[in-house]
Amino acid sequence: SICYTDIKNASFGVSILNVGADADFSSPPDVVLENSVFRNISGSNPAYVSNDYPPGGIVSLSGTVRATNCLLTNCGEYAVLGVGQSDISLNFCTVANYTPSFNRKTASLTFDCQRPDEATPNKLPHQVRISNSIIWGSIEDELYWEGFPSSNYTIRINNSILRTKDYTPNPTEFNTSANTPNLTDDPKFKRTPFNS
């Protein structure tokens, strides 16, 4: 686990790469993140560690991530990227991803249930839980699920503020909890690149 840590100015903050011939889907690798900050995470070349996987604050390729009370800010490609059989849980987390120095076109939180290391599509079970969190940034859609809706996704979002237009018309479509997320209200951070 990683606790009370500030990770900044890097190509990636935390990365789980459970891919290839040695991938373990019955007992995937996991990481617990608590009270930590991920800032200024980007790669000028989106390949790192001799692989073709993009950089990000938290990158999970078929792994398990439990983040509590974490801040992700100024992530040039992704704040959180979950691919394959990932299980992502964000609780009391803030994503304030304004990226003033980058021309970011990707959603801060991006998920894809397709196994990343296979040429033929093989969709895997994929879980995302967001509770008591703020997901906001400089683009209109800071949330993206590839191929959604799909029975491969299990998504639970409650008591959270999310910046998205794609999922605004019917938020209960991807929410299985009783608390519908707030998809429209700006969290009104005291200082951002837009008001400083």
What does the model show?
With 196 residues, the chain is an all-beta fold. Helix content is 0%, strand content 40%. The protein has no helices and 17 strands. Strands 1-4-7-10-13-16 form a 6-stranded parallel sheet, with no helix packed on it. A 6-stranded parallel sheet has the order 2-5-8-11-14-17, with no helix packed on it. It has a 5-stranded parallel sheet with strand order 3-6-9-12-15, with no helix packed on it.
Q: Largest beta sheet, briefly? A: 6 strands, parallel
**What Rg, in angstroms, do the CA atoms define?**
16 Å
Could you list the spans in which at least 5 consecutive residues all have pLDDT below 50? Answer: 175-179
Query: DSSP strand (E) fraction?
Result: 35-45%
Shape: globular
- Given helix and strand content, the structural type is mainly beta
Q: Output the strand order for the largest sheet.
A: 1-4-7-10-13-16
The termini sit apart by 35 Å
Oligomer: single chain
Helix content: under 10%
Quick structural overview:
The protein has 196 residues and is an all-beta fold. The chain has strands at residues 2-3, 6-10, 12-17, 30-34, 37-41, 56-61, 64-68, 71-75, 80-83, 87-91, 94-97, 109-112, 126-131, 134-137, 143-146, 153-158, 161-162. It is built from no helices and 17 strands.
